[in-house]
Write a structure and sequence with these properties.
Hemolysin E, Chain: A, mainly alpha
Amino acid sequence: MLLDAKTGAPPESTRTAAAAALGPHDYALDLDRLGCEALANQLRALVVLRQPDLRVLADPAGLGAAAIAAQTGIGRAARYYLNVVLPQLQLQVAEATALSHLMRGLNTALADVTTPAEAAAAMAEVTGQMRDYQEDAQEALRMTRLHSELTGKALKELDAAIDAAIAELDGKDGRIARTNAAIERTETAINAAIRTIVSNSNVIGAGVKSIATYVFKLFGGGEDKPDKDAKDKSNDKPADKTKDKTTGKDAGKDNGKDAAKDGAADAGKKPQPAATGGDKTSTDPAKPTKENPDTGKIAEFPAETITTISEGAEGLEQAQQAIRKGNELLAQQYGELADMGAMLAAVRVIRSQTVGIDDAASRLATVAAESYATLATITTAVTAMQQRLAEGAGLAENAAALSATLAAWTRMGNRTRQIERTLSGSGTLFPEI
């Protein structure tokens, strides 16, 4: 190693490089990300474990078995994370805090020794502890990768099992679309039956009115009142008399004489009996009678109206039955649609949550690998320093390089304590403003 000509110490660039190698590197940043991803996985795992039990839902589409199996698989992954992975991550963060204390303690220990050999002996204990921390970080990495594999497997099983079923349900010609079409047909049939009821009710009403009108006329309840205007006109007498053109005499007088003669002739004749068996009641349509005060004829009974009413009543009953059956079918169809919709919605939620926890698990495994690599770099740097001291390298320059990292290790320790509190539920990753 080249030494500075004036001070006899290593050049500034060399001391800076040594200090950088002995510092926490990006371990604080890695642990920040590790804490965030650990918290995200914790929340997603808790959400998964609070999913509704699909076994209580109706399953008209046959999605239940596949969805329940996928839900069981993702629930197993969530419990594994909460019970195994998360405690290991909490241990890694706690050991990072302990590492911060260890490096600051090593700086104090090197200030009390006088030879490189004593410094190397003091560092042996530190490097041994750091290797233990590295092994724990490696175990955390293994667990996060296993957790990611579990969530990925659950997601693949869910996709393979329900993709076809979802297409069968929610596709263009799926069961939901077919059920909606059936509902429309049922509603159309019900509306047609309603129109039939309205139409037949009008027919029945018209028929009843016809029969009632006949009865009223038959028993005199429907006599028409005499027309006042007609009565007034009948009382009017012609003002002018016409004369016979040939004789010049008054035509009214001659007509009166003729009428008198005709009346005398008729008086000598015997009245003929009526064709109805001697009933003296006149059947002359021009003369009013008790049977028909208007014309003297008995009104023809509206027999065809009875048939119309009967047919209308039969159609009314058929329409009412169609409405009852249609309503029952409609309720069944809406029930099936609701069941399919509920199961489909539940499966989609489970799928979305499975995708979410799988993504979070993948990110966590990536960050765990990066944090493990950073810790391995730190351990290698401290072990190399111990080796140099054991070989008799200068104590002062190595101690100075370590001392330059003191502030960085202190900052990392403060940060890891916040992460510890967050993962244990007693703190937050974000400082208060």
